[in-house]
Amino acid sequence: MTIDVLSDYERLFLLDDEALDRRYSIYRHLQDRQPILWSERLQRWIVTRYSETRAALRDPRLSNEQLPSVLKQLPEEIRASLNDDNPLLRQANKIMMSRDDPDHARLRMLVNHAFTPRMIEHQRPLIERLSHDLLGQMEQQEQPDFIRNFAIPLPIMVIAALIGIPYEALGQIKQWSDAGADFLGKSTDTLEVFFRMASAAIEFNAFIRPHLEERRRQPKDDLLSALINAESQGDKLSEDELIANVYLLLAAGNETTTNLMGNGLWALLTHPEQIALLRQQPGLINAAVEEILRFESPSQITGRHTKEAIEIVGQHIGPDQSVMLVLGMANRDPSQFANPDHFDIQRQENKHIAFGLGGHYCLGAPLARLETQITLPIVIERYPNLRLASQKAHWRKNPTFLGFETLSITLQ
Ligand code: HEM
């Protein structure tokens, strides 16, 4: 491994603009050279190829219980000042995403009892109505921005309605989910990000508790009531587990679904033959959404922690080490995908891992898919002359999530 290729990746991870513009050529260089490598600067292993990433996602020796390693990065005086009563500390350990089995399986089963496919499918008319409302509002803007005017508000409004949280809280929900996305994604600014997350957790607790009390007194037809009542063999979610996983559901799908819609519109508009094909054959929308997920994966990275010493393709990795699984790189691996840098909405074999794999496979995947399968056709049908107002991509600065800060478009 030449040092240049690795440091290119480190620059990309640290959000250097020039490296961000060469994302996929940097990925290919790494893949061509080594399936796994160590970054001293990032203090973690980087898995580069599809087959090893897939295997690692299912490997029980790789843990999701990463809070201890996040806390280890904090200065000693900060760590000493945290006590178990801090809601972030108390509840981060109750989020299903940050637990291993058997705790993870138990939490996921209870949440699954409430967050059902039927409940998701019921959002179809709401998604259609909100799409038209938001596009109507976007048309009033001097310079329409697909991200700010559409792709940010839509997923937040849908999840708020589904959970049963009033629309007045939309601004706060955005702040809480941004704090969560940065906490998961920006390990480089740990201290600032940690404090923002800690205060978001305090605010969210104060906000959600009265709603929980109200639903206990008077259940409604919403996810909050269903989660309170979710039961499996006499087991229920505790108050902290309930709050932690409502926060997770509220936050996990916002940045990611915004990115899926934005990346999708960008991919279609920069590939005129593909958008023309989709206009001619609207039935290709589901395959198109899968190709967007593969081609510009909204969640580029997930992480694990070694519970014990393991080997990945002959490389010894000690216990208590961070391992980065770059889903967006695996989804461009030429040994798995023919012509991986070609955006092809008719791609035949598309076993992408944009939603992860195994026990932690994205719980919200059906909702993210449904929203994007409904909204993109509405947008491209409503504006036959839709164009990008600028060819320059303004990516958001977060190494974990891939999406646009703004996406200016011309409607006529
Ligand atoms: C395009 C949109 C989305 C993408 C790309 C995405 C991606 C992912 C990925 C990669 C994971 C696995 C992480 C891991 O294994 O470490 C995951 C887990 C999860 N996602 Fe999503 N997600 C999306 C939308 C959503 C939505 C809309 C929701 C909820 C409403 C959601 C809720 C969750 C939850 C609860 C988990 C944790 C599952 C577990 O630990 O068992 N996601 N997501």
UniProtKB/TrEMBL annotation:
UniProtKB keywords: Heme, Iron, Metal-binding, Monooxygenase, Oxidoreductase
A GO term, aspect molecular function: oxidoreductase activity, acting on paired donors, with incorporation or reduction of molecular oxygen
PROSITE patterns membership: CYTOCHROME_P450
Heme as UniProt keyword: yes
A Pfam family that the UniProt record links to this protein: p450
Keyword Protease: no
Similarity remark: Belongs to the cytochrome P450 family.
Protein name: Cytochrome P450
Species this protein is from: Ktedonobacter racemifer DSM 44963
